[in-house]
Amino acid sequence: MSFHQIFTMLILFLLTITLPISVETKSLSPHSPLSPCYSRGSNLITDRITGKQLKHWYAIKRLALAEDVNGQPLHPTLHRLWKWAENGRHAIYIELITGSGEMGATAGRFRIIKLDPRGKRHISLIQLYLNTIDQAYIGPEVVRTDGLIPLKGLSKYERYAEVMGHELAHAYHILNDLERVHKVYELVEETNILLLAQNMDKRRFSQNFSGPEMLQRLEKRDSLLNELEPYAESIETAVWRELIASQKLRASNRRNDDQSKDQLPECSNVVIATEP
Q1: Which of the residue ranges 11-20, 61-70, 168-177, 240-249 would you say has the lowest mean pLDDT?
Q2: In a domain, 133, yes or no
């Protein structure tokens, strides 16, 4: 069997186990504490967020959409990205990962799950690794070239919002450019699928995937990832500055705020979502 035949089979198999579907949620009662509120009113799709995680999601959302007394966004950069994602044509699934088997130092990740060759509606996934964000080191050793020390001076949910801004920036930058999204899917997603297959069965696949063709793919993948980071980091820096700038105002507003806003929405008229 040729390299490309194996590669095609792997993609078909792995897509079946990674496509964001919510079939497993159909057994949950709408009133179950594990059952989130599903909605098709937004293309930020929360089917993969459990009921226990909803408080984290709504805290992030509230920060993203926070406004001043005049109705102006407190965090305009994050607000614009959030509205673009909610109202855009592409599906962006959300996962909040809190388990112990997280990806090392990875705070967030943007993935293309299903590519629409015409660019009409791609299906993608943003993953936030909450434990990693909570435990992230903050110090001069991690300062970036623009002077930002990621997450410095931020509270728990502000940290999540900063990382969300970084991943939404990737989504905006990639999904809005048909040539770029094809390139990312071919060089990043497909290469990662091959690596996953190799790790799953090294004896079967090592001979096919360890040669010069795979090394060349890895080199191109890493080069592309390095090209994509500056844009997302510049957006993340803007989000961090806006979060820092609004802290005093939000603290003042919180003392006089309507406490009912902190309540999770009722799960009435629940819609169990399927893969669009």
Answers
A1: 11-20
A2: yes
